[in-house]
Amino acid sequence: MSTINTDKQAIAEVLERGVEKIFPTKKELADKLMSGQRLRLYCGFDPSAPSLHIGNAILLNKLAQFQALGHEVIFLIGDFTGMIGDPTDKSAARKTLTRDEVLANSKNYQKQASVYLDFSGDNKAKVMYNSDWQDDLSFKDLIGLSANFTVQQMIARDMFQERLKQEKPIFLHEFLYPLAQAYDSVAMDVDLEIGGNDQMFNMLAGRDLMKALGKKDKAVMTLKILADASGAKMGKTSGNALFLNTEAPDMYGIVMSWPDEVIVPALELATTMAWEEVKTIAKDLKAGANPRDAKMRLARELTALCHGQKAAEEAGERFKTTIQQKSAPSDITSLPLKNCPTVLDGLINYFGEAKSKGELRRLVEQGGVSINNEKVKDINSQLSRGDVIKAGKRDWFKIS
């Protein structure tokens, strides 16, 4: 078993960096950490997509900080709750998934999480699946657990009130999702649960259930959420998520396309950069430093975490060449002319199933494609050997 780090400054950083709220209080959790008690903590990840994303990375980063202090970390895969679908902030019920679908989605989760968490050694993070206990609950058990909550508690949630106003349906299984998540805390007998601030209701339900069943006074830590310029959460539902399986050049480019307002929050929440250095960058930006340099640092940090330092450096060089200097990359894809007589044919061959024919048609018509640095808006424009085509901001190919 690992030694518990009770360094006051290290604990202060864990309780400050990226943290929104702590229940019951920050002081009570700090006292537990300072006492040398080894805490068991977890965060749950419902496999609603085949890859983790930047919002998940924020949570993994915080788990890793606790692991570095010597505490027991559980990486919970919600293969049961993922079939229900968390209704939090949803204007309509989520599509229910099968067990096979959620297991297929979570296939690479541990590998992606290992970017932040250590799954080996004396204090390795544990991978658990909540179907191990949720599947065993009887209808009698469910009735007993549900007796600890009221309909008023559930229906008071903002998204349910909004649906009532719009006369949209609220399904009974959506009421049961917080109960299922709450039972995870009981089954694992945890001391602390970590989640985004949008998960506060669900996590506090677990705190209430543990107290009601005489277990313990579980602590809850909510983290800040990475949001875009409009204030919308950068996630799957918003359509602006950065998935952790994104190829290095695309990951670097996507981060560089983020608004400047995201730079400091992303450095704070999702990178392992020293906390004091993040504060210095924030101070410099406020004093008028060029945000481009800080954004390139952010892009390099996130890409290196997911793909390694070499891949991050190569992605950075490719970005400078293709975006800043508007030149074709050295590793440009070649396509045979016989398959690409027109610009639309070339795009279809290059993107394959990644983009529909309609998307590619609009890309051309809206001026997003150029041949030899000349914009084209006719999908039937003829291609010749040696032509270099740029599609969007980051995709290039040439005709051989």
Structural class by sheet pairing and helices = alpha/beta
Number of domains: 3
Query: Residue-averaged pLDDT, rounded?
Result: 90
Order of helices and strands: HEHEHEHHHEHHHHHEHEHHHHHEHHEEEE
Helix content: 40-55%
Q: Which band does the percent of strand residues land in?
A: 5-15%
Assigned CATH class of the largest domain = Alpha Beta
Cα(first) to Cα(last) distance is 60 Å
Examine the secondary-structure arrangement and name the CATH architecture of the largest domain.
3-Layer(aba) Sandwich
Largest sheet: 6 strands, mixed
Poorly predicted runs: none
Number of helices: 19
Instruction: Specify the CATH homologous superfamily of the largest domain.
Output: HUPs
Radius of gyration: 24 Å
Number of strands: 11
Strand order of the main beta sheet, please?
A: 1-6-5-2-3-4
Q: So what's the overall shape? A: globular
Instruction: State the CATH topology of the largest domain.
Output: Rossmann fold
Please describe what this structure looks like.
The chain starts with 7 loop residues before the first helix and ends with a strand. It has a six-stranded mixed beta sheet with strand order 1-6-5-2-3-4, sandwiched between helices. Helix 11 packs across helix 12, helix 13 runs antiparallel to helix 16 (291-307) and helix 14 (263-270) packs parallel to helix 16. Helix content is 46%, strand content 12%. The longest helix has 17 residues, at 172-188. The chain folds into three domains: 8-223, HUPs (Rossmann fold); 248-324, Tyrosyl-Transfer RNA Synthetase; 333-399, Structural Genomics Hypothetical 15.5 Kd Protein In mrcA-pckA Intergenic Region, Chain A, CATH 3.10.290. The chain has 19 helices and eleven strands. The protein has 400 residues and is of the alpha/beta class.
